[in-house]
């Protein structure tokens, strides 16, 4: 089990994320300006805010604040705000899949078993605040958090759930497209409804996976035999399905990252630092200005992206280094006959570490997390095979003993 320093680091990053996201938007006037705009029903630049969603006044007020905070970035005339929204959203889809997958481990414990809550909090509070807490619990449990492949039915449902969530990213750009196609002088407030629908992506991801897994179990599609060969084959198939799900959203995150970088550099003539780094996009936020919410929301996204990227790097290194060794040691303790395979798995992982860091730097942190998750499934398949060989050896020994007797 890792030392307490790593879990404390995640807790510290969550506190940093809380201050960077909500503390700064509160002190620079962005949050008060947003609340005032929702109360008035208009942004500081005169655009109308959609205020009615459920018919319940207090619920609608909260939803209006949440949606307006994203909508103002999507319809901004300058490129960096919407680019940063799409970058963060694409990364968030991969993070939510990671949370869902780890919650489905057979031996998952404590709060990790509630993926819907974690994913929704990511959308509402901010990934920089919530994901470090999830990582802290994940790391704190050591190899107990995921020493087994997920159930075959659960795994088979993951690729479909991932595909269903892909169109959710397009909902963020619908208001801008409607505005461009309608040729209106101002964006339609009804376009803000699509932003609200994006916040339902955790419900779509977890709900689709849960329903499909239940259907598959009821149809008895996964192999039902308990022999070691069948279990190993089923586990390998489950791992491949999980890897496919990560590959789908990892490619989506990589595509979004590369397209954003290309548009910013060659079409919008915008420096990448203006997109990704706080305080690099224009002058300081000034109270009373019409763009105060837009610039404050951009800073929110930038800090969210930076802290989340750091957390993904730390968590990825943990999985590739520490967790890999923990899994190998656990396998040796429970099955000494599998020492050859686990020794191979515990070999130098620095090639994977370099590939992970390069992937994160070039294709974005979301793709880096998908890479780490795919590698973890390979670790677990190796363990599954080692246990299968150990079980086979035990069976042969038992048969030999009975023959001699």
UniProtKB/TrEMBL annotation:
The chain crosses the membrane at residues 12-35, 56-76, 82-100, 112-135, 155-174, 195-216, 244-264, 303-321, 350-374. The keyword Transmembrane helix applies. The keyword Isomerase does not apply. Keywords: Membrane, Transmembrane, Transmembrane helix. This is Uncharacterized protein. It comes from Apiospora kogelbergensis.
């Amino acid at each position: 089990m890792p030392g307490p320093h790593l879990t404390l680091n995640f807790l510290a990053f969550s506190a940093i994320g809380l201050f960077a996201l909500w503390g700064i938007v509160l002190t620079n006037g962005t949050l008060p300006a947003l609340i005032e705009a929702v109360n008035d029903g208009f942004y500081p630049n005169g655009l109308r805010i959609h205020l009615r969603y459920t018919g319940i006044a207090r619920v609608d007020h909260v939803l209006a604040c949440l949606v307006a905070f994203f909508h103002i970035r999507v319809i901004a005339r300058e490129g960096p705000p919407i680019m940063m929204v799409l970058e963060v959203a694409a990364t968030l889809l991969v993070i939510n899949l990671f949370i869902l997958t780890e919650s489905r481990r057979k031996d998952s414990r404590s709060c990790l078993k509630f993926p819907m809550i974690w994913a929704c909090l990511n959308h509402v509070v901010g990934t920089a605040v919530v994901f470090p807490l999830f990582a802290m619990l994940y790391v704190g449990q050591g190899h107990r958090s995921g020493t087994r492949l997920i159930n075959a039915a659960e795994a088979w449902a993951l690729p479909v759930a991932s595909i269903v969530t892909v169109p959710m990213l397009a909902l963020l750009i619908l208001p801008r497209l409607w505005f461009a196609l309608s040729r209106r002088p101002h964006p339609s407030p009804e376009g803000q409804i699509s932003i609200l629908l994006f916040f339902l992506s955790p419900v779509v991801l977890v709900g689709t996976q849960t329903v499909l897994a239940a259907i598959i179990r009821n149809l008895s599609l996964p192999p039902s035999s308990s022999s070691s060969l069948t279990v190993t084959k089923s586990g390998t198939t489950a791992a491949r399905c999980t890897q496919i799900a990560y590959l789908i959203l990892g490619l989506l995150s990589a595509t979004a990252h590369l397209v954003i970088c290309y548009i910013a550099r060659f079409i919008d003539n915008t420096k990448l630092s203006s997109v990704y780094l706080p305080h690099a996009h224009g002058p300081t936020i000034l109270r009373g200005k019409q763009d105060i919410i837009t610039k404050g929301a951009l800073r929110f996204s930038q800090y969210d992206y930076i802290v989340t990227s750091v957390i993904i790097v730390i968590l990825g290194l943990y999985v590739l280094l520490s967790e890999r060794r923990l899994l190998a040691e656990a396998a040796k303790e429970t099955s000494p006959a599998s020492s050859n395979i686990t020794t191979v798995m515990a070999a130098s992982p620095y090639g994977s570490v370099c590939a992970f860091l390069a992937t994160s730097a070039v294709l974005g942190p979301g793709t880096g997390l998908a890479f780490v998750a795919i590698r973890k499934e390979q670790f677990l398949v190796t363990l599954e095979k080692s246990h299968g060989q150990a079980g086979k050896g035990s069976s042969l020994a038992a048969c030999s003993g009975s023959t001699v007797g």
